[in-house]
Design a protein that fits this description.
With 200 residues, this protein is an alpha+beta fold. It has two domains: 94 residues, no CATH class; 105 residues, Alpha-Beta Barrel (Multidrug-efflux Transporter 1 Regulator Bmrr, Chain A). The protein has two helices and nine strands, in the order βββαββββαββ. A nine-stranded antiparallel β-sheet has the order 1-2-7-9-8-4-5-3-6, covered by helices on one side. A hairpin with a 4-residue loop joins strand 1 and strand 2. The longest helix is centred in the C-terminal third of the chain and has 17 residues. This is Heme-binding-like protein At3g10130, chloroplastic. InterPro entries: Reg_factor_effector_dom_sf, SOUL_heme-bd. It comes from Rhodamnia argentea.
């Protein structure tokens, strides 16, 4: 019942709030270990969240864990997604503004439980699409919102957050990501979503 009503009862990344204002927060996140998969929606019949089943398989959320131990890994929140433009003729991911040529790639990331202090301590994925790596900590501007976090809504929140950060003298140091804390069956007004932008 708690998941339907938006209660977050799983482990979340550790951070310190450096500044809180009416519009957003500045947070410093601790380093973490993540499992991620990069794909195009066309690989999953147009579904932008198609990578979720790949990562859920790795941790064992949908049955037997698809890792070399095999070890069931606790689910955490949030699920983090990032969109990037890739050129049709190149096999590498290149960042660029929406609307350019090519197809948009999505990178979906699970933050693994804090007990995995380094990437090599986490179980090795059996699916070669899953990459386990260490994510540096750092400073982020963060805006929280409820409802359904569509791509359009997230982009609008990111544009507004960027404007606020630049207005207040913060230097943006990378692209925005979307963090969703609840499963799809959570009542939309009770969902917790965040847009995060790295800053110097």
């Amino acid at each position: 019942m708690g998941m339907i009503l938006g209660k977050i009862s799983v482990e979340t990344p550790k951070y310190q709030v450096l500044r809180s204002c009416a519009d957003y927060e500045i947070r410093h996140y601790a380093p973490s270990v993540v499992a991620e998969v990069t794909y195009t929606p066309s690989q999953f019949n147009g579904r932008r969240d198609g990578g979720f089943s790949v990562l859920a398989g790795y941790i064992g959320a949908l049955g037997d864990p698809q890792n070399a131990k095999p070890e069931k890994i606790a689910m955490t929140a949030p699920v983090i997604t990032k969109s990037e433009r890739i050129a049709m003729t190149a096999p590498v991911i290149t960042q660029g503004p929406p609307g350019g040529g090519g197809e948009e790639a999505v990178t979906m990331r699970f933050v693994l439980p804090a007990k995995y202090g380094r990437a090599e301590e986490a179980p090795t994925p059996l699916d070669e699409r899953v990459v386990v790596r260490e994510e540096e900590g750092g400073k982020y501007g963060v805006v929280r919102f409820s409802g359904v976090a569509t791509e359009r809504v997230a982009r609008e929140k990111a544009e507004r957050l960027r404007e606020w950060l630049e207005r207040d003298g913060h230097k943006v140091a990378g692209e925005w990501v979307l963090a969703r804390y609840n499963p799809p069956w959570t009542v939309p007004p009770l969902r917790t979503n965040e847009v995060m932008i790295p800053i110097e």
